[in-house]
């Protein structure tokens, strides 16, 4: 073997890649919106998430399920850079998020809602959405203070865009209400609108149906489908309500003790004995 | 030798800061408030012991005890009347009330004792000094008593917090007020107890401070109070060993920078060190790191 | 557009009250109805209003407890005094107004620089730790100011640190502070400064940057997750506030013939904080009213003689206790409720019914 070839081979490091990734057929030719490779994080020796591999297609609605404490929200925090992973990588549209801040991740097109709602309580519904538009419709501080023409123009655009988004979810009449005083279900909806205002490629929903009644959950399912169809984006949701997950999610990933124990379609997951044992066993009846 | 004598002086001043800082840190740990009036309780302690000794002719030990009793009662009364009704209010509202209380104490003292500075009698702590190394290093009685008092207080307080039922109750309330209440611990009584202990310590600090720096007036407590508060933050607010470490370090830094760098800039150096420490360890030297839940 | 109209009314009332108060004061001065002691208070009142309004930007709008605001005022005051003295001595600039404007601009600028330098380390911290560090910085500024000597000779400005052997006339004399300052501050300048401060704050909070600042206050992680650069906007609030404090400081400094750094001790910072809290945190008009009332109050309490500050302290405590008492609060809310109802056309519950939401 020539020296050159030896050198060439020595410089190459072979790494395993996730092979069993699945995406909807319509997205197969596109760059997946999200790809994680061996993602993991430790908290004081405890592996909260370990070797997490997930691929989500450009317009996929995916579900992340698992028992309490399985590490689902931690995955969201890793994807949005609230935590820096100990191992592995997150790729958004093929771009590595390594070393990025929460803000940079947001600018790459990742948006989220929170398990315990985090609205800007003292501000109105419209203002909440306008804050979501922060990086979409801009003007600088001085235009704002001196009320330059740019201020009026961009404020008008912000208002129109905010109302357009609120309109989609039938919330335009609530625009002037203080967000903290709204009922729970409406607050959850507003969080989704605010996230959508950032013009994301991937929307992360953390237990969007928590605290909702069946009627509201039904409506939420319609809304999730509507968002995907209208904005052509991918959605990844954490949810305990199996009727919602099985009803709307195309691909489902099951997490237990920080590790992926199963991946597949709703039917596959429901039939998977490992999942049933770890998680669905008791809840299968309720889901049907 | 010059360095050693400065170090001893620093330890002495640091001990006073540590004793005051204990009051701040305990109240912060348990009631989650910055008690701005704490520094003025020191001043009250100094005046009470001064009056007891000078005007009423009581023996030194009784004068100090009188100051401790008076301040303990004062601390509990302040807590009960001004802070307890604000338990549910915002921390800023409590802070402003504490500031009002600080003004109140200062101005009461101003009315009673007038603004002219008084000379604190040296006989209250009438310990003779010692000299070491053939007279090269002289340590005054006050310095010795101060350092000793600090050690004794630390040991007793640590034992109290860790070994007694009341101490356990205090730790419970500090960790989770709601849960402590559910376990049958009276939160109000525990907070009162904390104020009582803190104020008694403030009285001791007042006696020691004015024995070491004998000129005092109604504003005497405010600057040491702020510095002791800084010391508490420096060590990690809410932590008792932290208050000790923070106080001692602050005192030493202050005296050494006075001696070697500049008398005028000593305060600035002390505060600058605090800032540097907080930048490296955002919750102080011995403070707990808290991760925000998302 | 109800929220917008409410803001418009609020802003109009704020500016209206300030302008009306200014006109009334001017009228009273011209007819000689104003007492001498109150007249002497006018410029300081303006300064304290600007201090309160600017601190409100940090404490109320940005949500950080700052205990070192007087430090920026002190930077502004001494800068203003030096610049004014320099312009007069070196360039024989007799135009008082121009000198005042330049001095205030310089005071604001330098305080702003101080704000940036202090903001970089301070804004890495949170909560009470941030508060204590701002307090520390306030004390450091005061301590350092005590060591600064500035003199003017010819057109040159000479600086000394812990060193008073400078040529020419001393403008700043270390711990003795500034002496022989030409008093050039005017009430009108104070009024204009208030208007500027109000325009800046009120326009800021109704703009993209202001909303970003408030978003960080209400939910930091959520603000970050929609792409708001936390450091940038916290810094923006902090520095803007410092600049205004510096301008107020310059005006304040040029209102007295002598000034020492200990005038800006931490209790001065705390006084300004009291204005902000009593005015209702985040409420600009409230800050203006509280600053005025609490600056005038000790003067009005002169009849109490030596009890004056005692009464002030008791009032402070009583106000805090009553405004935070749940029973009294509900009582007050019930009093205001009918007035509020007049302005409301539809209530939230009705609106929710229309949109199909479930009011819980």
Structural overview:
The complex is a heterotrimer of chains A (288), B (294) and C (360). Chain A contains twelve helices and ten strands. With 288 residues, chain A is α/β, with parallel strands linked by helices. In chain A, strand 7 (202-206), helix 8 and strand 8 (234-238) form a beta-alpha-beta unit. Chain A is globular, with a radius of gyration of 21 Å. Chain A starts with a helix and ends with a helix. Chain B has 294 residues and is mainly α. Chain B has a domain at 20-216. Helix content of chain B is 71%, strand content 3%. Chain B has a two-stranded antiparallel ribbon with strand order 1-4. Chain B has a two-stranded antiparallel ribbon with strand order 2-3. In chain B, strand 2 and strand 3 form a beta hairpin. Chain B is globular and about 60 Å long. The termini of chain B are far apart. Chain C is mainly α. Chain C has a single domain (2-347), classed as Orthogonal Bundle (ABC transporter involved in vitamin B12 uptake, BtuC), CATH 1.10.3470. Chain C has 14 helices and three strands. Chain C has a three-stranded antiparallel beta sheet, with helices on one face. In chain C, strand 1 (148-153) and strand 2 (156-161) form a beta hairpin. Chains A and C meet through helix 3, helix 4, helix 5, helix 6 and helix 7 of A and helix 1, helix 6, helix 7, helix 8 and helix 14 of C.
Radius of gyration of chain B, CA atoms, in whole angstroms:
19 Å
Structural category of chain C is mainly alpha
What overall form of chain C do the CA principal axes indicate? globular
Gap between N and C termini of chain C:
25 Å
Q: What would you call the structural class of chain B?
A: mainly alpha
User: Beta fraction of the residues of chain B?
Assistant: under 5%
Q: Return the string of H and E elements of chain C.
A: HHHHHEEEHHHHHHHHH
Largest two-chain interface = A-C, 59 and 40 residues
Number of helices of chain C: 14
The domain count of chain C comes to 1
Mean pLDDT of chain B: 89
Low-confidence stretches of chain C: 356-360
The tally of strands of chain B reads 4
Order of strands, main sheet of chain C, comes to 2-1-3
The SSE order of chain B reads: HHHHEEEHHHHEHHH
Summed up, the helix count of chain B is 11
Fraction in helix of chain B: over 70%
Number of strands of chain C: 3
What is the CATH architecture annotation of chain C? Answer: Orthogonal Bundle
What's the CATH C level of chain C?
Mainly Alpha
Largest sheet of chain C: 3 strands, antiparallel
């Amino acid at each position: 073997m020539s020296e050159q070839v030896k050198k060439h081979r020595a410089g190459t490091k072979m790494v395993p890649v996730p092979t069993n990734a699945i995406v909807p057929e319509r997205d197969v030719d596109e760059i997946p919106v999200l790809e994680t490779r061996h993602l993991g994080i430790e908290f004081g020796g405890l592996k909260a998430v370990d070797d997490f591999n997930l691929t989500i297609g450009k317009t996929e609605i995916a579900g992340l399920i698992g028992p309490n404490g399985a590490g689902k929200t931690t995955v969201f925090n890793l994807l949005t850079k609230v935590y820096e992973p100990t191992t592995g990588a997150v790729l958004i549209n093929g771009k590595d998020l390594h070393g990025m801040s929460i803000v940079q991740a947001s600018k790459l097109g990742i948006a989220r809602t929170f398990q315990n709602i985090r609205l800007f309580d003292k501000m109105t519904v419209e203002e909440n959405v306008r804050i979501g538009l922060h990086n979409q419709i801009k003007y600088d501080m001085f235009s704002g203070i001196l009320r330059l023409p740019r201020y009026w123009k961009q404020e008008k655009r912000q208002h129109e865009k905010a109302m357009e988004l609120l309109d989609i979810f039938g919330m335009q009449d609530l625009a002037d209400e203080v967000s903290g005083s709204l009922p729970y279900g409406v607050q959850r909806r507003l969080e989704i609108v605010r996230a959508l205002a950032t013009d994301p490629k991937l929307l992360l929903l953390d237990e969007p149906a928590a605290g909702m009644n069946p009627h509201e959950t039904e409506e939420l399912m319609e809304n999730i489908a509507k968002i995907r169809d209208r904005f052509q984006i991918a959605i990844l949701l954490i949810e305990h309500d199996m009727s919602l997950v099985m009803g709307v999610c195309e691909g489902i990933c099951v997490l237990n003790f920080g590790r992926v124990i199963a991946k597949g379609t709703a039917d596959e997951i429901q039939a998977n004995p490992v999942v049933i044992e770890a998680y669905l066993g008791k809840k299968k009846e309720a889901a049907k | 030798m010059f360095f050693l004598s400065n170090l001893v002086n620093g330890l002495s001043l640091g001990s006073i800061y540590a004793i005051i800082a204990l009051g701040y840190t305990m109240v912060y740990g348990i009631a989650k408030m910055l008690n701005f009036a704490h520094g003025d309780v020191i001043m009250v302690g100094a005046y009470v012991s001064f009056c007891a000794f000078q005007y009423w002719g009581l023996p030194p030990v009784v004068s100090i005890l009188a100051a401790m009793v008076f301040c303990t009662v004062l601390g509990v009364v302040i807590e009960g009347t001004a802070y307890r009704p604000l338990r549910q209010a915002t921390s800023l509202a409590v802070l402003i009330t504490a500031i009002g209380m600080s003004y109140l104490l200062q101005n009461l003292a101003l009315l009673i004792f007038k603004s002219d500075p008084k000379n604190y009698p040296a006989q209250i702590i009438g310990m003779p000094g010692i000299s070491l190394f053939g007279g090269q290093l002289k340590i005054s009685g006050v310095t010795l008593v101060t350092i000793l008092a600090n050690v004794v207080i630390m040991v007793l307080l640590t034992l109290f917090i860790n070994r007694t039922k009341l101490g356990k109750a205090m730790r419970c309330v500090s960790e989770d007020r709601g849960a402590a209440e559910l376990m049958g611990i009276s939160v109000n009584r525990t907070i009162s107890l904390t104020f009582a202990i803190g104020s008694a310590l403030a009285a001791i600090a007042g006696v020691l401070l004015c024995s070491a720096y004998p000129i005092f007036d109604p504003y005497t407590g405010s600057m040491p109070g702020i510095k002791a508060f800084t010391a508490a933050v420096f060590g990690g607010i809410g932590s008792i060993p932290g208050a000790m470490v923070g106080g001692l370090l602050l005192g030493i830094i202050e005296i050494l920078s006075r001696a070697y760098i500049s008398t005028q800039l000593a305060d600035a150096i002390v505060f600058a060190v605090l800032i540097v420490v907080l930048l490296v360890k955002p919750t102080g030297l011995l403070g707990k790191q808290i991760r925000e839940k998302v | 557009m109800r929220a917008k109209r409410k803001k418009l009314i609020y802003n109009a009332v704020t500016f209206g009250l300030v302008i009306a108060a200014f006109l009334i004061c001017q009228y009273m001065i011209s007819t000689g109805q104003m007492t001498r002691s109150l007249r002497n208070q006018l410029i300081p009142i303006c300064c304290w209003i600007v201090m309160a309004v600017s601190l409100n930007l940090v404490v109320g709008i940005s949500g950080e407890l700052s205990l070192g605001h007087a430090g920026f005022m002190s930077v502004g005051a001494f800068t203003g005094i030096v610049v004014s003295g320099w312009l007069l001595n070196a360039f024989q600039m007799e135009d008082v107004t121009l000198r005042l404007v330049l001095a205030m601009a310089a005071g604001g600028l330098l305080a702003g620089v101080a704000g940036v330098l202090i903001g970089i380390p301070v804004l890495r911290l949170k909560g009470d730790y941030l508060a204590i560090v701002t307090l520390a910085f306030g004390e450091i500024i005061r301590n350092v100011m005590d060591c600064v000597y500035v003199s003017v000779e010819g057109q040159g400005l000479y600086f000394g640190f812990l060193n008073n052997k400078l040529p020419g006339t001393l403008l700043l004399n270390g711990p003795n502070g500034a002496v022989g300052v030409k008093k050039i501050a005017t009430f009108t300048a104070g009024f204009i400064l208030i208007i500027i401060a109000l325009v800046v704050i009120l326009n800021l909070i109704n703009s993209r940057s202001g909303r970003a600042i408030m978003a960080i206050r209400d939910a930091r992680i959520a603000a970050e997750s929609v792409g708001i650069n936390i450091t940038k906007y916290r810094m923006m609030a902090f520095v803007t506030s410092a600049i205004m404090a510096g301008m107020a400081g310059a005006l304040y400094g040029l209102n007295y013939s002598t000034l020492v750094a200990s005038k800006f001790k931490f209790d001065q910072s705390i006084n300004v904080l009291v204005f902000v809290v009593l005015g209702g945190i985040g409420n600009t008009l409230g800050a203006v009213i509280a600053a005025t009332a609490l600056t005038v109050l000790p003067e009005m309490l002169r009849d109490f003689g030596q009890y004056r500050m005692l009464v002030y302290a008791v009032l402070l405590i009583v106000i805090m206790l009553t405004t935070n008492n749940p029973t009294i609060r509900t009582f007050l809310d019930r009093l205001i409720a009918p007035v509020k109802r007049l302005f409301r056309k539809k209530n939230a519950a009705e609106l929710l019914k229309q949109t199909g939401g479930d009011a819980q």
